Amino acid sequence: MPEPKPVLIVGAGPVGMVAAASLVHQGIPVLVLESGPGISEEMRASTFHAPTLDMLDDLGAAKEMIRQGIIGPRVQYRMRDQSIIAEFDFGLLADVSRHPYRLQCEQFKLTRILHALMQQ
Question: How far is CA 1 from the centre of its chain?
Fold first, then answer.
């Protein structure tokens, strides 16, 4: 069987880097093109939920993200006077996720972590 040709990924943002890491994890070579001078340091979104963390764990990135981030074990919805309307404890997901919480970790950290993993 011939060796697979690299998949071209345009953009080294969070989506491009996750796609690249997933393909590399499957043994498929990639070439990532980025128009900027390097990986962006823009803040962008910062909340990662349990299914995403499970996927990123399979790629080898979750452990370092957790080290650099802040775990949120529950989410609360509040009124303007700060009284709680509703609360969800992510611990209820413990039987369906390896990461029963949400993680606050800026996306630029994710792209750096994935880039470092693909350099190994």
Answer: 33
pLDDT exceeds 80 at position 44: no
Bridge partners for 87 per DSSP: 76
Q: Are strands 70-72 and 74-78 parallel, antiparallel or unpaired?
A: unpaired
Number of domains in the chain: 1
Measured distance CA(15)–CA(113) in Å, rounded: 13
**Containing domain of residue 53, as a range?**
7-119
Residue 66: CB atoms within 10 A of its CB come to 18
Instruction: Give the pTM.
Output: 0.87
Q: Tell me the sheet residues that pair with 69.
A: none
CATH number at residue 70: 3.50.50.60
| Residue in the block written with tokens 């792209």 | 111
Q: What percentage of the chain reaches a pLDDT higher than 70?
A: 99
